[in-house]
User: Fold this.
Amino acid sequence: MSQAETLYHLQDIDLEIIGRKKRLAEVRSQLGESAELREAKSNLQHIQEEGRRWRTRLKESELALQDISGKIAQNERRLYSGKVRNPKELQGLQRETTHLKQRRSAKEEEVLEAMVHVDELARDYEKARQHLQAVDSAWKEAQAELTTEEEALVSRLNALQERSRQIVATLPHQTVGIYEHTKMESRSRRGLAERWRMPGMPGVCIGEQGAGSARKHCCGYVWKLRPNTGQQGPVAFENFRQSMAFLQDSRIMV
Assistant:
């Protein structure tokens, strides 16, 4: 394999490393609890707390209702027992009983309201529990897939990086320095670089679009700069010419 072909192969490996590192970062960003799972857990917890609050309120209202009902029963026994003969005492007992009955009515409404909320929250809890179970099941399945993909990516990256080191070790130090400098220049200008596959054979550089001439001046590889604007055509070829000029000035000959 010629030096030009070796560099072109190295470029393939380096670009794959870039792509797989990017994917690995995406995978790792998705590992851990998802927003949907956290929301489902939070919703279930909120319903549980509301359920406890209304059950406590229901119990308190029922105890208060029992206490009021007991006092009413006690007063009515005294009223109808014939033991209370003092008119003022009878009137006071009647007024107290009337007031207790009003309180009992209000407390009965509170008990009914609490019972309705407890029943509704019990149904909401079951729905939220089933939803959380479904979300958790899907999340665990997705996490397993992501973990498997992460392991495969790490394994592939290790192999690629080792292969890259092996290839670099076979190249002259000056050639490697120019190659790395070209990559850095490409990335600093336009961000992530991607390969420009030349229509000619390895070792042949096409300097102009449609120029119809080929000059064996460079190593047969080039980093195509992707404009941030997403423009195609002349802008891409201008970047192409800049890269070719850099390589030609560096005197990398085939």
